[in-house]
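If I may wish for something, please sit down with the protein I am sending here and say whether tokens and residues agree:
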Amino acid sequence: MKLPHSYYSNQDVLFLAQDLLGKVLFTDINGDVTAGIIVETEAYFGVKDKASHAYGGRRTDRTETLYSHGGVSYVYLCYGIHHLFNVVTSVEDDPHAVLVRAVEPLIGIDIIELRRKMPASKPAISAGPGSAAKALGIDRSLNKKDLTENEIWIEDHGIVYTSEEIVTGPRIGVAYAQEDALLPWRFFVKGNKYVSKPNKA
């Protein structure tokens, strides 16, 4: 059920960013298990991508996680407020990653509602990467975790979307990346209410 290390070692981050749609992201925090269906992602293409933290081969204490072999979590704080959860992919020293931008609440919904102080019927509960992470209790303590272990992991529940059901468009909030900001490397499930805005390509 859990995705194995071999899945994450795929060097085609654009393929994985789309393939992760429909997979189920789990956390187990002090015995509280919550999960959501991944419905929106963005691909970050390693050292060549101006939007990536690893652009140009940049290596810092924060970005070092990106250089791990695929299958670990990369969690960082954005604007000092929101934790963002990324899946490190590819092989060691090839720092690709997929940002999970939105999930559809699936398991432990009562806990998710408590964390977000709103009902699961509200899209804002887990739309957008900061909200998705908060809904699942993800913070920096879950950085650099093995995604095949028991704190944070992803499962395949057989949910598959056709190419007609997946919308592609430019990534959000990466204007600093100049021409790379226009690349259609954001993927989301058409018509899913938990997708962050704008939910059009």
